[in-house]
Amino acid sequence: MKKVSSFILSLVTLALITAGCQKPYSGSQKQFTRYDRQARELLARMTLDEKIGQMIQAETTGLKDPSDIETYYLGSILAGGSADPKAGNSPEAWTDEFETAMAHSLKTRLRIPLLFGIDAVHGHNNITGATIFPHNIALGYANDPELVEEIGRATAVEMRATGIHWAFAPCVAAAQDQRWGRTYESFSADPKICGRLGAAASRGLQGDSLAADDSVLACVKHYAGDGGTAMGTARGGHGLDQGDTRCDEDTFRRLHLAQYRQAIKEGAGSIMPSYSSWNGVKCSANKYLLTDILRGELGFEGFLISDYEAIKQIDPDFKKAIAISVNAGMDMAMEPTRYREFFALLKELVQEGTVTQQRIDEAVIRILRVKFAMGLLDPDYDYKVDRSQLAVIGCQEHRDLARRAVRQSLVTLKDDDKVLDLLRKAQSLLVAGSAADDIGQQCGGWTIDWQGKTGAITTGTTILSAVKQAVGPAATVWFSPEGDITAKADVALVVIGEKPYAEFEGDRNELKLSPEDIALVKTVKAGGMPVVVILLSGRSLDMDDISDYADVIIAAWLPGTEAAGITDFLALTPDGRN
Ligand code: GLC
């Protein structure tokens, strides 16, 4: 008898130890299902209007009246890529925006806090002064899951400093055609890399516990096949973005579904279906994808958020489109301005039985479970932001992390050790090209504005500043946007590349350098100096037009605010110049 009881005791002890050290369900979908009972109890107290409201996300700049958050019981608000606060783009103004929206939601009868979402796709990139990390294409080349997780962590910390707790990231598209304007949002054409790094990003964003005050909800996107569309199938028969992915199911699963498995297993709490179609069927209308595979096969227990006004693309009759998408499995609709209309139409659909009460309840339970897991429905939940944390935005620790990510992500397309040695010893350097002193161009799209823009749009280190810092007083650095070669230098660093763009605005029919960039490299080479070219781009570009005029070519992708990672990669220091 004694032996048996001690054996049972040791088993119980072992169970308690593992339970104790096991993270509280984080890193799995159980972190949502564990709140099933509480969600159903809350659901039972909700009216149909309150349920429908939870399924709607309006945009801050789209609200006809801020009190519509209360009137329509809105479950969420987003700030789109260019939705700056009326008070201007500062961390304080963003924090005020967050608190104002939350305050409205807590004036509703059941005080269900809303979710505030934003496209933090390479740092807290809408906010002036935030650390801007390299876009995913660069991180895909670094291919370092720990680095990506650290970046997710730093992004979450800077987001929560403003209160904002939902990132529409990571994008796990496997970009198959680099003419696509969203290639730079993809980690790779290889779904295995997308899966591994997407899971790491999701882990970093959501942290050890979604309820922690420095964690944010991740949103894996765009489900699925966004990176596999065929040229000419997009809007109006041109381009790739939001087009049609035409392939058999095996190919679709291999290239476009596999990368979701890992992020779901890691506990990602939301997924955004794609604007694009699979063999002619809109992903946002595809029940096989949104319910049978995602829920039935991949075990996803979080909720689905539509892309920005994506539902209306399903059918010219908005009411019909809503019915198709919600019945296919869409749980929340991103309706920046048409939220009142959506509310009324979905209510009609339920009252006439086209959308069942059961389907509504299922969507709302999924949303509530995530809100429970995030601690939003804790009795002591307080939306007020600790503003002493604002100092973490753009902090040196995060900028150093971004600098390391830049260094790890650069690719040498053409090498010449002698020229690089000369660059390290040069007494005089010519830095040519307007892109060398343009923080906006080195950050690319989704930075401060949806499309991004050139110029001094935020704080950081340009390539020119990085070179000056790296070589120090030991060398003379000339800067000439036009590549003026009268000033004789030992070596030239020529910075060329794409101007910022996002989404369909970046679709191209060919991937050649601009005539201006080709001319710049040729002009500088004509000066007789060795030429090192730094390329800023959201994808691989055709280097044939300059390869004979450049001795070294480095692909820097879209490095973000910390260009010192480039001079680190080139090993530029003051040493060796005396
Ligand atoms: C955009 C993008 C999506 C983004 C959403 C909200 O159109 O497709 O990636 O998260 O709208 O800005």
In short:
By secondary structure, the protein is α/β, with parallel strands linked by helices.
Features:
578 residues, alpha/beta, TIM Barrel, Rossmann fold, 2 domains, five-stranded parallel beta sheet, 20 helices, 39% helix, globular, binds alpha-D-glucopyranose
Give a written overview of the molecule.
This protein has 578 residues and is α/β, with parallel strands linked by helices. It has two domains: 31-378, Glycoside hydrolase, family 3, N-terminal domain (TIM Barrel, Alpha-Beta Barrel), CATH 3.20.20.300; 410-577, Glycoside hydrolase family 3 C-terminal domain (Rossmann fold). It contains 20 helices and 17 strands. It has a six-stranded mixed beta sheet with strand order 12-17-16-15-13-14, sandwiched between helices. A hairpin with a 2-residue loop joins strand 8 (277-278) and strand 9. Helix 9 runs parallel beside helix 10. The termini are far apart. Residues 16-22 have low confidence and may be disordered. It binds alpha-D-glucopyranose.
Could you tell me the radius of gyration in angstroms? 25 Å
Lateral strand order in the biggest sheet: 12-17-16-15-13-14
Helix content: 25-40%
Known CATH architecture of the largest domain = Alpha-Beta Barrel
CATH class descriptor name of the largest domain: Alpha Beta
Count of runs of 4 or more consecutive helical residues: 20
How big a fraction of the residues is strand?
Answer: 5-15%
Low-confidence stretches: 16-22
Going by CATH, the homologous superfamily of the largest domain would be Glycoside hydrolase, family 3, N-terminal domain
How is the CATH topology of the largest domain named?
TIM Barrel
Q: Which cofactor or ligand species appear?
A: alpha-D-glucopyranose
**Largest sheet at a glance?**
6 strands, mixed
CA distance, first residue to last residue:
84 Å
